[in-house]
Specification:
Aspartate Aminotransferase, domain 1, seven-stranded mixed β-sheet, Aspartate Aminotransferase, domain 2, single chain, about 40% helix
Length: about 400
């Protein structure tokens, strides 16, 4: 009765923007979550690629506990040594020379959009402001990042959208080349289109995009909100492409479960932001910065997590390929990079997600017909095998 009461209260007082499952989670450890009625669930969604070290990782928990006892929040009118330490770690491990901290992926992308326009306006004048993004992309829910998102179904009801965005097909270099103009200030892409159905570019695509940007004085923004923090087998996915962006955005797993966003840039580009041109009240506060430091240090500690991400990602894909072979009438494709993996079906897949939920596994349906898996990096082969048993059972019923 208490469970029913809480669910009814939640429905009556919280805005109806999510189709929620009838469960209340009260505890998490590692790969597992426990509901209010005591049932255990294995989490292959990770809070949508957030809990990269699983739930309540001890090093992250201790870092938060220690910091919250010392200092919780100060404004960015003052210096914050924990924030500085985090910035230095990110700079050391990436192409970047400056970092701006915010609270989420949408805010990190918003900052990237503003920075690109400010830089271009300062260098070239006010007529160079357009940003090209990919069809099927996802960059956030603010008005500007929603406009940057190349999915018209998400735009409905929010018009007029922010001017200055164009869209081209993902992984189509010729289309991109013919879309740029004297008004283009930046190209903004996800290394893997996660929300768009785990879509991966062909080899050489990002190198060609980088060269195109360099030749035309256009900034390259990589949205690594979902692919960052080891998700693809390297700290950031761009490392596997042999290129460097001008701006990179990170969030989700960056805080190990705490809300943080970061916009990374070269010194030249970052210099376009001056005092008062952008800000964030909570961005990079000591608690979330401490959690982020603990998360990054744990991922990089001995390299094993990144190695295992690559190995287990391949094992995951191989396991799904066996399902594809056995269920040709349902499974269309398998694709992935590291532990960001998609299983494309020839039908709407919410019923598969529901069936897995009922059997104690949390997965996700995205792009209507793609099952998305983004488990914590601490996932094991045994966890994957157990999921495959459940998926096989569910697909057999559908078949």
């Amino acid at each position: 009765m208490e469970l029913k009461r809480v669910l009814e209260e939640s429905t009556s007082c919280i805005m109806n923007t999510y189709k929620r499952f009838p469960v209340i989670f009260v505890k998490g450890r590692g790969m597992s979550l426990w509901s209010k009625d005591g049932k255990e669930y294995i989490d292959f969604l990770s809070g949508i690629a957030v809990n990269v070290l699983g739930h309540c990782h001890p090093k992250v928990v201790v870092a938060i506990q220690k910091q919250v006892q010392r200092l919780g929040h100060i404004s960015n009118f003052y210096h914050n040594d924990v924030q500085v330490k985090l910035a230095k770690i990110l700079i050391k491990r990436t192409f970047a020379e400056r970092v701006f901290f915010s609270n989420s992926g949408a805010e990190a992308n918003e900052a990237a959009i503003k920075l690109a326009r400010k830089y271009s306006t300062t260098k070239y004048g006010t007529d160079r402001y357009e940003i090209i993004t990919a069809l099927n992309s996802f960059h956030g829910r603010t008005l500007a990042t929603l406009t940057a998102t190349g999915q018209s179904r998400l735009h409905k009801g929010f018009e007029p959208l922010v001017p200055g965005f164009k869209y081209v097909a993902f992984d189509n270099f010729e289309a991109m080349k013919h879309t740029i103009s004297e008004k283009t200030c930046a190209i903004m892409l996800e290394p893997v289109q996660g929300e768009g159905g785990v879509r991966i570019a062909t080899e050489g695509y990002f190198k060609n995009i980088r060269e195109l940007c360099t030749q035309n004085g256009i900034l390259l923004i990589l949205d690594e909100i979902q692919t960052g923090m080891g998700r693809t087998g390297t700290l950031f996915a761009y490392e596997q492409f042999g290129i460097e962006p001008d701006i990179l955005t990170s969030a989700k797993a960056l805080g190990g479960g705490m809300p943080i966003g970061a916009t990374l840039a070269t010194e030249e580009v970052a210099s376009a932001f001056d005092v008062g041109s952008h800000g964030s009240t909570f961005g990079g506060n000591p608690i979330v910065a401490a959690a982020s430091i603990a998360t990054i240090e744990t991922i990089l500690e001995d390299g094993i997590l990144l190695q295992e991400c690559t190995r287990l990602g391949e094992y995951f894909i191989d396991s799904l390929m066996k399902l594809k072979k056995d269920f040709k009438d349902i499974v269309v494709n398998v694709r992935g990079m590291g532990l960001l993996v998609g299983l494309e079906l020839n039908r709407e897949c919410s019923q598969v997600v529901q069936a897995c939920f009922e059997r104690g596994f949390l997965i996700n349906c995205t792009s209507n017909n793609v099952l998305r898996f983004c488990p914590p990096l601490i996932v094991t082969q045994e966890h994957i095998d157990r999921l495959m048993v459940v998926l096989r059972e569910v697909l057999e019923r559908l078949s």
